[in-house]
Write a structure and sequence with these properties.
extended
Length: 179
């Protein structure tokens, strides 16, 4: 009968001033940190999916949103429909603007947003909110269509310079020389 081999015990790690757990969470270890959730890794996966869809013959799938983005789109539409953020807090007018803008950025058509959103009525005189809309637009650069969801009409947008800025930006984009 063979005697069991004695295993060599690892040398005890020197204790650091941070305590005994500092050695187990040291970032200078040979193992790289988890990079799965980094923004670069997420973007790489998204681009790879689109690339594979386009070159793989599934061109129509390239316009499809990834799972997280699709869930976000559905949540934003649900919140606009209910008028509540995450089911509890009432949406403020700025929240409505941000959600509509984000949905439009995700490619959601304005008609489908209009179907689920209750357009708020504005009872304030136009002169009272022109300056605020001008400052808001400078800060956030919302699309002009978004303001209509909180009851801000075309005359207020024109006086605040929102429509003029959008028209000049569109003109610049059309007349931009091609390289």
């Amino acid at each position: 009968m063979a005697a069991p081999k004695a295993r060599a015990k690892p040398a005890k790690a020197a204790r650091t001033p941070a305590g005994p757990t500092a050695a187990t969470h040291d970032s200078s270890r040979s193992r790289p940190p988890n990079r799965r959730g980094s923004p670069e890794a997420i973007e790489k996966r998204r681009v790879a999916r689109v690339f594979n869809d386009i070159l793989g013959g599934r061109g129509a799938a390239a316009n499809k949103l990834d799972g997280r983005t699709e869930k976000r789109r559905q949540r934003l539409l649900k919140e606009l429909e209910a008028g509540k953020a995450r089911g509890s807090r009432e949406l403020k007018p700025l929240d409505v603007l941000q959600r509509v803008q984000e949905l439009m950025d995700l490619g959601e058509p304005l008609s489908s947003i209009r179907k689920v959103t209750k357009v708020r009525k504005n009872t304030l005189p136009a002169e009272a909110i022109v300056e605020v809309v001008e400052r808001l637009h400078r800060a956030y650069s919302f699309r002009p269509e978004v303001y209509r969801f909180v009851g801000i009409g075309e005359e207020v947008l024109r006086e605040a310079g929102v429509l003029a800025q959008a028209a000049s930006a569109a003109r610049r984009a059309r007349t931009k020389p091609k390289p």
